[in-house]
Amino acid sequence: MIERCVLALAVSFFLVACEQEEESASATAPPVASTPSSVEQVLPAREVIDAAVDEYTRTFINQQSALATSLGLSEEEYGAYNQRLPDYSPKGMQTLREDMRAAAEKLAALADPSLSEEAQRHLQVNEVLARYYAGLEGFSAGYVDTWGGHLPYVLNQFVGPLIDLPNILQDQHDVLDAQDAESYVARLTAFSQVADQVRTKVQVDADAGVILPKPLFPNTLGYLSSFAEPDPADHPLITSFADKLAGVKSLEPRQREAYVDQAVQAVRDQIYPAIAAAADTLTRLEDQAPENVGIWAQPGGEQYYEHAITYLADSSLTADEIHQLGLDEVARIGKRMDEILRANGYTEGSVGERMQQLNEEPRFLYADSGEGRAELLEFLRGEIETIEERAPDFFSTLPPQDVEVRRIPVAAEAGSSGGYYIAPSLDGSRPGVFFINLKDMKAVPEFGMKTLTYHEAVPGHHFQLALNQLQTDIGIMRQNAPFNGFVEGWALYSELLAFEMGMYEDDPFGDLGRLQAEIY
Question: Which of 32, 101, 399, 497 has the largest CB neighbor count within 10 A?
Fold first, then answer.
């Protein structure tokens, strides 16, 4: 790409020189017919931009094979990625970040005020995305996540390769034929290698002084323990694989059994030992871990926080300004919650204490049983149907992709949030999914479930991300752009929009759940 840019500059200087010579000669020489020249072969500016964006996109996708699976990209176009997983070793993460930084510089060099507004936007957005994935220069700890960008701890209780990759394998790696099955088994072996890479990265980061805060150790170690607790044959990585194989009619029963046996062996002999080694490394580091949970307590943490404000919050505000904004909003929202609580007979104690009181009342709780969990899932699906019926009155365009509600797998519950959304594949063959954590039924009271649904599914993440994927003219990086301030900003706005759509009418406790989510 640099060669093309240099060529374009050389051609421009050549044209200027030619024009000057032609002007001086025009007075004495008769006009002549123009003839084709090699100059006409120079790519137009937009084609140069598109070529640069395509180059960096392919570089990124080549190193993010799991994302390629999530998006359902064509292996004919992007290479055979379904047998591989990303490289989370210190060297692998360094390579990705260097490649993205180099791509950002190449894109920045193409900026020109003479470009059309759309071309400038396309170039700028892709440059910002490249810098997002390059992370903070000088802060080597952590890893680059395809959604969260540069995150400081590669092993934690919430996100990371050891949590995210199993979910992708279970929910998004399609098994439609023998090749897919072989790829899945190969990826199980690759996952054991990822666990070794993560363990190494944790130690290297610790040697540099960056260690997971001590209060986060129990849940992180709890996740690793629960992940390796089931009998290998009963692990979700195996049971989900067996379910997929059952639908492959081209395979004989003995072939399906053979693939399952290979997968069980990989989990038992490779994955479980690698997970145990990672847990041992983390356990040895616990005594050295900082008690303070703020990133400021880590070496380079202040600069990292400023970087996060820029690239995660999409903001130019200072940390102090954002903190003050938060205090002001808590006061505003808390006042409204107090008004609703008092109007419904809850007058004693702080707003937080009264909300905790609601959380203990049986009328708001689903039974801690299979039946109670099934009832909650049906309620969520019903809310999606109801708001989808009203949506045409508020939206001119609705996503054609389906959205489903599923329970977070039991093995992953300890390390997962209350709920999250996964976008559909680019071709729409796989639906968007709203996953909900049903480990603790007291954590999912009925009065908070409407808001969670509107945020994670409709009209929240599903509407925005599914519709964004349909913009096939902006390129894969922008179709999957993880601009957190806008993505979470839209989902938060969707909670208020649902209120304006009448979804909380005659439901003051549901509105309290909405305000509780907003104050969070």
Answer: 399
What value, to the nearest 5°, has the Cα angle with vertex 422 and ends 149 and 213?
A: 45
Alpha carbon 292 to chain centroid, angstroms = 26
Environment class of residue 371 by beta-carbon count within 10 Å: exposed (0-12), middle (13-18) or buried (19+)?
Answer: exposed
How is residue 132 annotated by DSSP?
A: H
User: Which residues lie below 8 Å from residue 311, measured CB to CB, with a gap of 6+?
Assistant: 131, 132, 149, 150, 484
User: Number of C-alpha atoms within 13 angstroms, CB side, residue 503?
Assistant: 34
pLDDT in tens, 433-459: 999 999 999 999 999 999 999 999 999
CB-CB contact of 470 with 463 (8 Å):
no
Gap between the Cα atoms of 451 and 460, Å rounded: 10
Helix (H), strand (E) counts: the chain? 21, 5
Within 13 Å, how many C-alpha atoms sit on residue 310's CB side? 14
Q: How many Å apart are CA 313 and CA 322, to the nearest integer? A: 10
pTM, two decimal places: 0.87
Burial of 70 (0-12, 13-18, 19+ CB in 10 A): buried
- The candidate with the shortest Cα–Cα distance to 122, out of 106, 111, 133, 138, is 111
What secondary structure does DSSP assign to 295-322, as a single string? GGGSTTHHHHHHHHHHHTS-----HHHH
* pLDDT (tens digit per residue) in 482-506: 999 999 999 999 999 999 999 999 9
Phi, psi angles (nearest 5°) of residue 27: -70, -25
Span 8-27, average pLDDT: 39
The overall average pLDDT reported for the chain is 91
**Cα–Cα distance measured from residue 457 to residue 406, given in angstroms and rounded to the nearest whole number:** 12
Spatial CB neighbours of 183, under 8 Å, sequence gap ≥ 6: 82, 83, 173
Q: Where are the alpha helices (DSSP H) in 228-369?
A: 236-246, 253-266, 272-285, 301-311, 319-343, 351-360
Structure tokens at 261: 């046996």
274, 199 in Cβ contact below 8 A? yes
Contacts of 206 (CB under 8 A, 6+ apart): 285, 288
Give me 443's structure tokens. Answer: 């954590």
Radius of gyration of the chain (CA): 27
pLDDT of 516 > 70? The answer is: yes
pLDDT at 29 over 50: no
Give Cα 442 to chain centroid, integer Å: 27
